[in-house]
Amino acid sequence: MIEGYEQAAARAEERLAAAADLGAVSGIERELLGRRSLFADAKRRLGDLDPGDRAEAGRRLNGARARVEAAAAAARERLAAADRDDRHAAERLDLTERLPQTVPLRRGRLHPVTQARDRLEDVFVGMGYTVAEGPEVESAWYNFEALNIPDWHPARSSFDTIFVDLGEPEEVMLRAHTSPVQIRVMEGRKPPVYIVAPGRTFRSDTADATHLPAFNQIEGLAVDRNITMGDLAGTIDEFVRAFFGREVKSRLRPSYFPFTEPSAEFDISRPDGSWLELGGCGMVHPNVLRNCGIDPEQWQGFAFGFGIDRLAVMRHEIDDIREFVNNDTRFLSQF
Amino acid sequence: MKALLSWLREFAPGIDGDAAALGDMLSALGLTVEETTVTGSVPDGVVLGRVLELRPHPDADRIQLVEVDDGSGKSLQVCCGAFNMAVGDLVPLARVGAVLPSGLEIARRKMRGQASEGMCCSEIELDMGDDAEGIMILNDRVPAGAGPGTPLAEALGLEPDVLWDLEVGANRPDALSVMGVARDLAAGLGVAFEPPDWSTAASGPDTSDVAAVEIVDPTLCGRFVGRVLRNAPQGASPPWLANRLTALGMRPINSIVDISNYVMLELGQPSHTFDLGRVAGARIRVRRARDGETITTLDGVRRTLAAGDGVIADGDDEAIGIAGIMGGASTEIDAGTTDVLVEMAWWDPPSISRTAKHLNLASEAATRFRRGADWGDNVERCMNRFVQLAAEQGAGVAPGLIDERGDLPDRRPLRVRTSRVNSLLGTGLSTADMAGHLRSIGFGADPADDAELDVTIPTWRWDTETETDIAEEVARLHGYENIERTVPTANEAGGLSAYQQDRRLVREVLVGAGCYETQPMPFVAPGALAAVGLPEDGITLSNPVDDSESVLRTSLLPGQLRAVAYNQRHFNGDTRLFEIGHVYLPAPQGQLLPDEREFLAVALSGEEAPAAVAVLDLLAEALALPAVELRSGSLPGMHPTRAAEVAVAGRVRGAVGEVDPGALEAAGVSGRVAWLQIDLQEVLDGPRARRRYRPVSKYPPSDVDLAFVVPESVAAAQVERALRASAGALLARIELFDVYRGPGVADGSRSLAYRLRFQAHDRTLTDAEVAEARQRCIDETTRRTGAALRS
Questions:
Q1: Which chain A residue lies closest to B169 (C-alpha atoms)?
Q2: Which residues in A lie closer than 8 A to residue B169 (C-beta atoms)?
Q3: Cβ contacts of B367 on chain A, cutoff 8 Å
Q4: Out of B485, B563, B577, whose CB is closest to A237?
Q5: What values do phi and psi take at A253, rounded to 5?
Q6: Which of B199, B347, B419, B689 is the most buried (most CB within 10 A)?
Q7: At how many degrees (to 10) do helices B498-512 and B609-623 cross?
Q8: What is the per-residue pLDDT for B229?
Q9: Is B321 on the interface with A (CB under 8 A)?
Q10: What are the pLDDT digits (tens) for B499-531?
Q11: Cβ neighbours for B322, distance < 8 A, ≥ 6 positions apart
Q12: Contact A254 B28 (CB under 8 A)
C-alpha cells in the first residue's frame, strides 16, 4: 500500500516541477494533500494496518507528503520568480535614453545641522583657519592614548564609548569626540597649524529629546610659536561675537580635560544675564604635542570643541533632537 | 561632590557672603556649581500650633474646621483640607501674613462661610519634603520644651544652609572632600583656611602589638596606616552625623560604616574596617593577586581576580579584600565583633583603575583612589577623626599606629620658569604673584632666582606634576577672567579645500533639484543590509546602544529607504531626499580600521530611473565630470532591469536607476524609488574636464531631426555615439527629443528621435553641406548600430 502512495508522490513531484502556472500547482495540491485527497485517504487507511506496521508506514507516508509539499512550495517560488522576471523584463528601461527632464520648481533644503556647520566653518575660515576631517571609526591611539588618556585614566569611562568588533577588545571605536583629528593633522604636518574639524561623533546614549548616540562636534586647534591662553580667550570671544552676534559675551571657567592644560569650559551670555555652557577648551597638553612629534618647548597652542547640533537647536528652538535623524520633510522644510 | 556651607565654614570660618556669589567663586575656581539648594529655611510666621478641637464644616465635606492653639493665649479657627491630625497634635501653623515658599501669602478669609485665620501646612507646602497628602505631625520631632507659638525653625533646630552640587574634574582628587573644597574657596576669597585636628584618649595594648601589616608589593601600596578600636559602635549614628551624610547624598547604614563615609566626605580619605578577630594571625599582607584567585566581596558576590589586581591578604595569605575597591565578606564586622582594625591606605591609581574596570566594580573609595588620594599628614588627621567619632559613640581606642610605607610619588621641588608660565598664559605675573597664588592652596613656592620658583606640590594633588600643571594652578587663582584677551595672527589664508567646496556645490545642486538633505544615523539592524539585497558584511558594534542598531552601514540605501518609508507613513507623500555620509566597508587586509568612505545618495520616491539619471547629469555638469558612462549590469539592491553602473573617466563609482522592488517591499516603501549612489570621495578627488573657452559662432545654425527605429538591445548611448562620430566637426549639439514605442514600430524596437544642430564658426552652412552631413549620419548610424531610419 505504502509503495503506491510513494509512487504517486514521486509523480506529483515531477508534475509540480513542470507546472506552468499557479492553477496547475493548486490542482495537484488539492488532489494529493487536500481534505478529500489521496493522502487524506491514506491517513484514514493507516488504521487498518497491523499496529506493528503502523509506525513505519506512518513515517514513510509523512515523508512522501512532505516531499510533495516541498515540491509545491518550490514550484510556487519558481513561478513567482518567473513572474518577477517577466515583469522586470517588461519594464526594462534603457537608462541612456536621456530625454530632457523638467525639474519641479521647488527648492529642497539643507539639513539644519549642515547649515549650522557651514556657518561655523565660514566664521573660522574668515579667521584664517582651514577645515580638517578624519574618520569616524578610530583606534584607541587617536581617540585616547595620543590625547593623553592612558588606558587606566578615570576620564576614559566618562566618554561612554561605543566600541566596534575590530582588533583587540576596546581597540577600535566610534570616535567619542572630534579631538582625534587634532592628532591626525599634527602627525601629518608641522606647525603652524590653524584648523577646525567638524564631524560626527558617537556616545553610548539612548536616544531621547536631548540625546542621540550619533551627534556632531567641531574642534579647533591652533599651534604656533607663541600662542597663549589669552589668545584662546580672545579667539573664543571673536568667534562668539561673529557667530551669535556682537552683543554676546564669552567667559572661560577652569575645567579638566586630559588633553589640555590649563583647561577651561567656555560659556556665552544670554539676554537675561545668565550664562550658557557651550564647550571645552584649553592649551594643548605638552604630552599631546610630544605624541605628534612636536617639541612643546618650541611650539604651543590651544584647542577647543563644542557641539554643532546644539547650535541648531538653539537657533531654531527645536525641542526634540530626534527630529534630526527622522528626516521628516515636514521638519526639514522649515529651515 | 556635594558641599554644605556650614560644613565648609568648620574649615574656614571666614567663608561668608550670599549663596550666589560664593557659587560663582566656586565655579571660577573650577569647582563648577551644577545645582544650588538652600536648605533649612522656614518662612517667618510659621510656628508650632496644637490642635484643640476638630469639627466638621457645616457646608463642606472636603474641609474641616480646626481649632488651633498658636501660643497667643486664644485659639484660632482654621479651615483645613486634610484629615490626618488628632486633637493634641503639634502641627506647623502658618499665621496670617506668612509667605510660603510657593509665594502664597496667608490671609484671613472665609471658606464656605467659615472664617480661616491661618493654615496648617504639609511638607511640600513648606518645601521640607515630598508629602503633599497630610499635615506634618511634629509630636515626636520637637524637643519636650517646645510648645505652641515656638517658631518652627527653632523647634526643629533648623538653620538656613546652602548645599552645592559641584562638578569636580578627574585631576582634583582633593576636591572630593569638604576640606578640599574649603581650601580652594578660602584661597579664592582670601580668608584663612584652618583645618581642625582631633585627639582622643587611648588605652590598652598598642595597635602594633595586636596587629601587623606587611606591604609585599611596594608598587601597589604607598602607605598603609592602621589602628585598632575595641567595642566598635554598631547602632544607628547620631542624627547630626546621619543628617550630614544624607545631605551629601549618602545613606546612613550603621555607626561604623557611617563614620568611615563621614571621614571620607569630610577629609577625603577612604577607609576600610576589618573584624580583627577574623583576620587570620591578625596579620595583613598587601600583594598582587594570583591570576584566577577568588574572593567573596562585602556585597556577597564571588569575584575572580586577575594577576596585577591589588589584594589584602591575611596571615594565611588568603585574600580578604580587593585593595582600594571593596572589602571581603569573611572579615566583615557583625554583632560578634570586638576588635576592629581601621585601614587607611594609599593605592597606586593606575592599579586601582584597571582593577575597578575589569571587575566592573565602582565604589566611592575606588573613585578617590583612582584619582590619587592624599598620602601625607592628612592620613593621620583622618585616622584621628575616625577614632574620635568612634570614641564619642563608645569605642575604645588603642594607642599607636601601624604606618607601613611602599613607593610614594616623588615630591622633590619642581623648578618652574615664570617666563614659561607667563608665555603659556599670556600674562605678566611676577615670581611673587605666582608664589602667592600657589601658597594660598598649600603649594610650597620658594623663589630660586628672579625668574624661577621651586614649587613643592602637596601630597593631595597626585595628578599635579609638571610646569604646565603649575601654570594651570596659577591661572586658576589669578582668575581666568583676568587674562587679557588677544587674537593670534595666523600667517596663512583660511579656506575650504577643493573637496569641501565641491561637496557644498553638490549639496546646492541637489537642493536646487528639490531634494531635502537627510542625516540618518549610520547604524542598521542585523539583517537590514541583506533585506535590501546587499551583502551582510557590516562591521558590528561591541556595545550597541540598541540591538536593532548594532551594525555599521556599508551603503546609504537602508537609511534612505527608512527615511522614505517614514515620510510615506506620515502622509508626507513622495519625497526627494539626499544624504552625504560615511559608509564603513570591511577593513582591507592588514589594516585595523575599516575602509571608510564618504558616499552620496539620492532617493526620489515615486519617480522612475530616468529622474535619477537626470540628477546624475546635473551633478556631472556642475562638477565637470569627464566621460560619465552608464553600464548595464546586475547590481545588489538595484532593480534588475532598471539600473546601471556609473563610470566616471572609465572607473566604476556608483549606481543609478531604481531600487529593487524586493528591497522596497522589505523596507515598507510603496511605489518606485529612483536611486543614485556614488562614492563621492573618489569622484571629487578624481579627474575633471577642463573648461576651456571656445568662441561663440556668429553664424546661424541648421537643425536636423532624425528618427531611427532601434532594437531594444541597442542602447540609446550607442546611437548617440554613432551620430557624434559621423556628424563631424560641424556638430554643435545633439539632443534626444522623443522616444516612441507602439503601432508603426516593430515589437522589440523603439523609435529614437534626435535633433542635431550644425553650425560653423566662419560661415553660414549651405544646404548642401547640411544635407551631406545628414546623410553621413544616417549611413554611419544605421551601419554601426543596426538602427533603421524611420520614414
A1: A256
A2: 255-256, 263
A3: 154
A4: B485
A5: -125, 140
A6: B347
A7: 140
A8: 95
A9: no
A10: 999 999 999 999 999 999 999 999 999 999 999
A11: B295, B297, B303, B305, B309, B310, B311, B312, B328, B355, B359, B361
A12: yes
Identify how many contiguous H helices and E strands chain B contains and give both numbers.
21, 38
For domain B207-405, which architecture applies?
Answer: 3-Layer(bba) Sandwich (3.50)
Beta strands in B81-240 (DSSP E): 90-94, 109-111, 114-116, 119-120, 161-167, 212-215, 221-230
- Is residue B307 within 8 A of residue B288, CB to CB? The reply is yes
Q: Which CATH number fits domain A112-332: 3.30.360.10, 3.20.20.70, 3.40.190.10, 3.30.930.10?
A: 3.30.930.10
Q: Is the pLDDT of residue A70 over 70?
A: yes
Residue of B nearest to A333 (CA): B516
Instruction: Say whether A230 and B485 touch across the interface (CB within 8 A).
Output: yes
Residues B174-224 have pLDDT tens digits of 999 999 999 999 999 999 999 998 999 999 999 999 999 999 999 999 999
Amino acid at A177: H
Q: Which residue has the cell 591662553?
A: A229
A82 chain-B contacts, CB cut-off 8 A = none
Q: For the segment B148-172, what is each residue's pLDDT rounded down to a tens digit?
A: 999 988 888 778 899 999 999 999 9
More confident residue, B246 or A182: A182
List CB contacts of A169: < 8 A, sequence separation 6 or more: A163, B542
CATH number corresponding to B2-40+161-189 = 3.30.56.10
Q: Is the peptide bond before A192 cis (omega within 30 degrees of 0)?
A: yes
The model's confidence at residue B664, banded by pLDDT at 50, 70 and 90, is very high
pLDDT digits (tens, 9 = 90+) for B735-787: 999 999 999 999 999 999 999 999 999 999 999 999 999 999 999 999 999 99
How far away is chain A from the Cα of B365, in angstroms, using its nearest Cα? 13
